[in-house]
Every structure is written in structure tokens, then in C-alpha cells.
Amino acid sequence: MKAPYANELGRNEPGRNPIVTASFLVHSKEIRQKKNGDEYLSLTLGDRTGELDAKMWDNISEVRDRFERDDFVKVKGLVQIFHNRPQLTIHNIWRMDDGEIDYADYFPCSRRNPEEMWTELRGIVASLTNPHLKGLLEAMLDDEDVAARYRRAPAAKQIHHAFLGGLLEHVLSVCALARPAAAHYPQVDADLLLTGVVLHDIGKIYELNYERGFSYSGAGQLLGHMSIALRMVADKLRGLPEFPDGLRTLVEHMILSHHGRLEFGSPKLPLFPEAVLLHYLDDLDSKMECMRALIENDRQVEGCFTTFSPALERQVLKKDRFLAGEAEGAQGARHPAAHPAAGEAESAPAAPPAAAPGVAAGPPFSPRLGSPFADKLKQALHPRQET
Length: 387
Ligand SMILES: [Fe+2]
Ligand SMILES: [Fe+2]
Known about the structure:
By secondary structure, this protein is an alpha+beta fold. Helix content is about 40%, strand content about 15%.
């Protein structure tokens, strides 16, 4: 097991050595220029617990070609708090051989067992009573390549369920929402809704690469997961000549419309009840998971709110911290200024890394850290640091 993990760095624990040696997967690598023209290295490093911004300010010519994105590296450096988040100033960096790696340390994965999840999905499909829909889903899930990828694929590159097994976890979660929702509305065909749930994101198994870091495949970039899913359905239906044409069109429509709006990539709005339900349940599940992950992975050392999430278009309240602060305040244990109003959490501006010669310290106008505006502005100026 590797140590330390990304989420252990930057904790303000007395006696903790700010100089660390740790191993990570390189999620991004950029060569940037300081104001004086010298180059520096800007990296995003990650492991299964999250990501860490890292900079190497000097002597990068010695190390810049030692590794690339998606390599495993060992780094030695100084952990500091910068803009309320941990940042690593790299002193040295080496590429690691794959033989030294325990992959489970570097890739986030579902907390649920993939085989258990797969058995649950197969059970849901077996429970369908419409023979055509059941036949289509069984043909799809009996495909060995589909089955292997469906067990492993994330549901997204970044936004929600972005971990191995995430697609399956997401689909099962939406199935669990779909059953009582279908029972609640008598006009809804539960089999059709569940078919839409199982197939709506199935194209992601080919849209994304997930052997190392998560990225879009060539087909993913060019076609997107809805078009890929339609191809997959067409491929399976060639072996099911009795499948009714009208039912096929409904299934295809559910796949195409599940993002709900044209500007979110669906070429059609959902036009019948099962399609509308699929869209809202899918959206609900992805937002709830996005919010959970945002709170759990937020690295800000102070304040009650997470960084701004472009996906959710808001900051999210860290309820436990908020309530703990309220409780302390109620006891009068600390000066009220130590408990700023929600969303206005102040923190002493952390000094930028000491060894950052020639790099602008920040914009001349520096909004309060932790405010929504500050987060949005930082994101616009330094998008890599905030996402
Ligand atoms: Fe989707
Ligand atoms: Fe989805």
C-alpha cells in the first residue's frame, strides 16, 4: 500500500513533516512560462483518493523528459497550502516502473464489488416480462466484450461516478429509483423504463478509455455515447428479427433524449413518460453522486463550502463543518469572527510557494478566498487548479 495518499497531504497536523516523498499517477503535465521567460512544470498528480496540484519551478530541464502523462512517478517535495488548498513544490521527480505499482492504489473504484453488481443487474434484466425487451438486454449483456467493459467502465470522465465500476453503480442506482417511480405512475411501462436505464449510458463503455487515466476514446470524441449506444443496439437487433419496429424506436428515443435538453447533447427532448422519467432519474442520480464526491474530495482546509463546481453550477455546503462551527459558536468558545457566515469563510491568504521566482503572485485584485466569486475567478484564470 502506498503512503502517503493525496488526501493525506496538507493536513495541518502538528509535527507533520511538510517535506514528503510519495508516488502518484500523472494526470496532466504542462510546461509553462514564468514572467522572466524561464519554464516551469505544472502537474496534476493523482491516486485513488484524489488529485494534487504540483509545480516544479527550477531546473526542469533535468526532469522534463523523464516521464509523461499517465506514467507513475515518485516525487519529493514541499507541501504548502496555496489558495486554501494543498500544493506540492517538487524538488525531484522520477518515473517508476510498472512492476513497482499496485494499481489499486492509483485508480478510484466503486466501493461495491463488481461481480455482486453484475449479478444484481442480471437479476433485474431476468425480472422483465416483455420478451422483446428482455431478449434485447440479454443479448447485450451476454456479449463478453460488453460484459467485461460494463463491469469496469466509469460513468463519466470527471463529473459523476468517475471511478472504475461507476457506470454499473450508477445504472443500478437509477434502476432502484425507477422501480418505485414506475409503480407510482400507472401509465409508465416499468420494463420499457428499465430497458432505458440499462442502455442509456452503455455507449460509455466504448466512449471512454479507462485502462490508466480516464479519457475519451477516438470513437468517444467523434460520436459520443448516445450514437455508440444506437450502434450497439442495432448490432444486437440484427439477431432479433422479431423485435417490433415501434418498440425499437422507443428504445432508441430514450437513449437519444436522456440528457433532456438539446444544449446537453440530446438531439431530441424526451417525448413520452418513460423517456421523461429516465431523464429526471438519471439527472437526479448523477447530481446526488456529484455532490457526494464534491464534499468528500474537497481539499480546502478552511471554510464550510466546497470549491465552485461547474457541473453543479454552485458551491456545496459541507454540512458537518457548518454545524460543528455553529455548535462551537453557540458555546461562545471562540470569537465570532472565527465563524464567518456561510459562503464568506475567510482564511489567511497562504503564501505562494517560496521558490516561485518571476511568477505573478496573482491578479492585482484578490477577492476573498472561499467566496463564490473568488472561486469562479480563479477557475477562469487557472482552470487546472480549480477542477
Ligand atoms: Fe448520458
Ligand atoms: Fe446516466
